[in-house]
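Appendix B, Record 12. Input sequence as logged:
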Amino acid sequence: MLGVRIGTRSLPELILASETAIRDRRESFIFACANPHSLVVARADSEFRNALETASAIVADGVGCKLAAALAGVAVGPRITGSDYFVALMTALNRTGGGAFFFGSRDEVLTKLVARVKQQFPRVAIATLSPPFRQWSGEENDQMIGSISQFKPDVLWVGMTAPKQEKWVAANAARLQVPVIGSIGAVFDYYAGATKRAPQWICDLGLEWLYRLPREPKRLWRRTLVSAPLFLWLVFRERFTRQP
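Logged structural output:
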């Protein structure tokens, strides 16, 4: 979709692939989400698009992707949110025991997140790191990678904004050598309770964007009112200019 390969695997299949990566400890299994805004950004940002192309799994996180795919005749997999994947993989990790590193967000969010993780997933060892909210130096990056590597996590959760998080993962995955790396953005804030998520029935209807927009207008107005209509137009243009 718009030049980005969106996977068709179900959530159980993604968890099985993730567990296999943790067991074998060979190549990293890299998880990323696609939504209308990120696909529009990736169209004009080659570094971001390349980062998505290197991911092991890209899921349709957002009702907009599913709607556009259905109307334009494009096959994509089931809608899987970053939260869905996070909870499912942490549940699997909790059964066997393992370690998860949380990289991103603010210290106060990480503190709340850790408290909930320890309660819900007591068999998972946890470490956290909040990176600077600015462009950091190569030396700082080396130090942060060193902290992650020293912990030797089974899963690295990256909670920054797109496309920053996907670009960072693509640039550093080989050095990190973590079995599973998941770019899950705002899931840190949702899981910690720092940002309230829409009620489940609203999510089930695909109207979470409508619930979030008046609560986070500064962050979401562009992706909702600009990127979403542009995305639909680009998908349809791509569909109707495609060679038979």
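Strands lie at 29-34, 57-60, 98-104, 124-129, 155-159, 180-183.
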